[in-house]
Specification:
This protein is of the alpha+beta class. It is 31% helix and 27% strand. It has two domains: 48 residues; 54 residues.
């Protein structure tokens, strides 16, 4: 009546029965299973219901890593744009403050001098 596979293992006098229902509450990678251990000599039975959640798959991990890399790249581009605008403004406000130099700047943000405000 809707029951799933049952696996029974004998360990000396301890019988462990693993039962997973066929209508196995499997939503969003959630599994619900019950484990039953019975001691035949002492008449003790232990039932343990276990819910395992696996929310993360390898595809989700790849998407999150790619999203993080894209966000970091966008932040670096944004910082570079702001620095170029700030350098152009500083050069316009203080025309004689610097000598004639190459306007090329390094791409990495840690390889430039700080400009005064």
């Amino acid at each position: 009546s809707g029951e799933g596979p049952t696996e029974t293992r004998n360990c000396s006098s301890l019988i462990v029965d693993m039962f997973l229902p066929a209508r196995a509450v499997r939503r969003h990678n959630r599994w619900l299973g019950s484990y039953r251990a019975a001691d035949a000599q002492n008449g003790i039975e232990l039932v343990l219901i276990v819910a395992l959640r696996f929310n993360s798959t390898s595809a989700q991990n790849c998407i999150h890593v790619a999203f993080g890399i894209v966000c970091l790249t966008e932040l670096i581009f944004f910082e570079r744009t702001l620095f170029c605008m700030h350098a152009e403004r500083y050069g316009h406000v203080h025309p004689r403050a610097s000598q004639e130099r190459d306007m090329a700047i390094a791409f990495v943000p840690w390889n430039h001098l700080l400009l005064p405000l």
